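Figure 2 data, in text form.
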Amino acid sequence: MIVGVGARPGVSAAEVLVAVDVVLPAGAEGVRLATLDARAAEPGLVAAAAARGWPLTGHPAAALAAVPVPSPSARVAAAVGTPSVAEAAALLDGGTLLVGRTVVGRVTVAVAS
């Protein structure tokens, strides 16, 4: 199960985990976090992944931009170079979108399996 995560700079691990917990199905196993490569070193994302023992992968904006998503955003595209971070990161390796783009505070998440 892949949770795509989009986040604003300076987001805390607690903010990330609250957002993930809102969308992650109960009993989910094999969870991986995926995001934009420019955000993969963000301390809050790194700490959230470490707290749960989940791998965290960053993908280039160009790779994310090539993924068709149901909820593209012109604002996100202008800001980071791809019209989707959360949904595209969740879907990049294939699979089916289980939970579409969900905004929780300063974090956007989506889930694919």
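Caption note: The mean pLDDT is 96.
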